[in-house]
Write a structure and sequence with these properties.
The chain is mainly beta.
Amino acid sequence: MPHVIIDPDSTSLAERFALIKAPSKRRARFPEGCVTLVESEEAARAGRDQTKKLEPAVVYGPSSSSESQRLYYLVRWL
């Protein structure tokens, strides 16, 4: 997993709890369509569904890629 550089002065980028639709846990960044933000760590853990490949995580973003896609970067899996 690459090191995520966090900008403490950013008003739009932040660490958030999320559920990620991830067929593999090897990726370090995910398009916005694969990420569902949730309110708390408990909500993220409760939303885990291995049959749907939904995994709880802490993500940082959203950030715009060079291809103008909104991406979330994995901080850690829960």
